[in-house]
Write a structure and sequence with these properties.
- The protein has one domain.
- By secondary structure, the chain is mainly α.
- It has eight helices and no strands.
- Helix 3 crosses helix 5 and helix 3 runs parallel beside helix 6.
- Helix content is about 65%, strand content about 0%.
- Belongs to the YIP1 family.
Length: about 160
Amino acid sequence: MTRNVPLTNYEFTMDEPVKDTVIRDAKSIYKKILYVCFHQYDDENTIKKWDLWGSFIVYITLSICIFLDNEIVDKKNTFGYFFVFFFIGHILVSLNLSLLHINIPFFQSLCIISYSLFPLILSSFLNLFISTHVLRLLFCLLSIVWSSYTRFIKICLPIF
């Protein structure tokens, strides 16, 4: 005989309302961005729970920001090239990590790499409103340095 007990903490997420799922995932993405880019939430279990929604949102947002840039002539191909080259680059980084015998799952490394691209999203969004090439270059360089300084190195290579 089984009893129907109402689930209040949604142990099985199939019974969870869509609104609660979206809010939970948005909070998770927010925590991971803070953890990877801003070195907050020092709970290492945060990043071990990889997700593909955050990676998808980061890649699509960055692709859209690049697509909306007025200086790009061939917008459709640039959007596709960007999306494909970043994914191929991620595969190569994951292959390099496995050749170095660093045990990190493929999708977890995809999650970490995509969250470390968040400074590039900020830079590309700011560059939509800036017409001075020197300032655009400065923002791009700062975002590349910031992206390189994220927690990805500390997570994958604990010797640093």
